[in-house]
Amino acid sequence: MKILVIHQVPYRKVEYHRALDHHQHEITYAGSASMLARVPTDLPCTLMEIPQDEDVADTIIARTSRADGYDDVLSLSEFGILLAHRVREHLALPGPCLQQLEQVRDKVTMKQALEGSGIRVPRFVPHPPACGPLPWSGRTVLKPRRGASSEGVSVYETAREALAAYRKLQDRLDYQLEEHIDGHILHTDAVVRDGSLTSLVTSRYVGKPVDFADGKPLGSHQLPHEPRHHAFAAQVVETLGITTGCVHLEFFETPDNDLVFLEIGNRVGGAGVITAHHRHTGVHLPSWEIAARLGLNPVPAQQPSGRYHGWLVLPGHHLPPGGDHNIAVPRRLREHPCMDRLHVLAPGTPLPTEITYQEWKTPVFVEASHHDSALLREFLEDCARSITVEGGTTL
User: Fold this and answer.
1) What is the spatial distance between Cα 6 and Cα 181, in angstroms, rounded to a whole number?
2) How would you classify residue 348: left for phi > 0, otherwise alpha for psi between -120 and 50, otherwise beta?
């Protein structure tokens, strides 16, 4: 096959060579210079550099034609889904329609598509009236319709406060308002092939994604299998018409055990999801997604660990960006039996200026596991309380 990869996810996270034989297939990676620099130099492939100031899809379209003979366009980034659609249309290649893509990209469209399905969604308003209140009065979330990593998300104590903030936005049409749901936030990660879910694992967050944007730790740990979590994910996937690729579904579990949809991405989960999933199930999610999208046989699964896995990341984007930082990890945590790997940013390395979950960019990233999911959670919560990141040097 001749494959055009819109390369926006770091190579070390995807490792395309696991799923694609670069000697058998003719592969072109299209991306920024920094992204292409991480493609292994020993891989036989073509690199198409996209200048930082140019639109990715426009540049690819200008440099390609149907005569080039591409068989497929592959994008594993949430931000590249719609770009890939434009390129496929240009190259006359089959793929999901724009409406289908909007249902896994736009947070209003996906909730509208679930209405009437029996799946509970938060009450939401995409375009509030110029005057008048919202249909609810309590805590309210203001968020971008197509955002990621909780960037730009704000939580207000009352609907009135949230509505006032919304009306001050210049780009208000890109935002939506929804009621705040109390409860634990869970995420389910799986692969969809021919409309069927496989390798499904549900995890529970430690902390909240929206709080990570404000500088607080975030993690998650895998839960024992519960049929109702599986059934909920299957119903969401079927209702939204997702037939191919990985899914990262986030939902609430309320105090009365109700399950409430939050959002879904038709892509691999971020942070430590890939590694934790691989160790728990033996399935490397990006490889299985690539195989599903290209109609290839998936690489064989490896031996599962027999343990529950989790991760925790401490952010640095909210701190001064210099390399003079002080990271303190208590010895009891470093030597704890749950600790698998501890990634600590080297002294002198600048802190990230953008929101990121990448273990090689953040001040501290913990990989952990245990045979008991509850004990694993206790360890990750202790890490979140006890590890500190401040100015100074690494301890």
Assistant:
1) 36
2) left
Q: Is 232 left (phi over 0), alpha (psi -120 to 50) or beta?
A: alpha
Q: Which fold has domain 2-95?
A: Rossmann fold (3.40.50)
Q: Cβ–Cβ contacts within 10 Å for residue 173, how many?
A: 10
Q: How far is CA 63 from CA 57, 262, 340, 384, in A?
A: 10, 39, 45, 48
Distance CA 192, CA 280 (A): 18
CB within 8 Å of 333: residues ≥ 6 apart:
339, 379, 382, 383, 386, 387
Amino acid at 291: A
Number of H helices, E strands in the chain: 13, 18
Query: Using CA atoms in the order 92, 52, 44, 82, what is the torsion angle rounded to 10 degrees?
Result: -30
Domain boundaries, the chain: 2-95, 123-179, 184-391
114-129 per-position pLDDT tens digit: 999 999 999 999 988 7
Q: Are 87 and 58 in contact (CB under 8 A)?
A: no
Kindly report the pTM of this predicted structure. 0.94
Topology of the domain comprising 184-391: D-amino Acid Aminotransferase; Chain A, domain 1 (3.30.470)
Amino acid at 370: H
| H or E, element range at 29 | strand 26-31
CA–CA separation, 328 vs 227, rounded Å?
40
Which CATH number does the domain 123-179 belong to among 3.30.1490, 1.10.3120, 3.40.109, 1.20.120?
A: 3.30.1490
C-beta separation of 191 from 245 below 8 A: yes
Distance of CA 161 to the CA centre of its chain: 29
| pLDDT tens digits, 150-181 | 788 999 999 999 999 999 998 888 999 999 99
Q: What is the DSSP string of 85-110?
A: HHHHHHHT-----HHHHHTTT-HHHH
Which secondary structure element, helix H or strand E, spans residue 281, and what is its range? Answer: helix 273-281
Pairing of strands 218-222, 325-328: unpaired
pLDDT band at 271 (very low <50, low <70, confident <90, very high): very high
What does DSSP say about strands 26-31 and 124-125: parallel, antiparallel, or unpaired?
unpaired
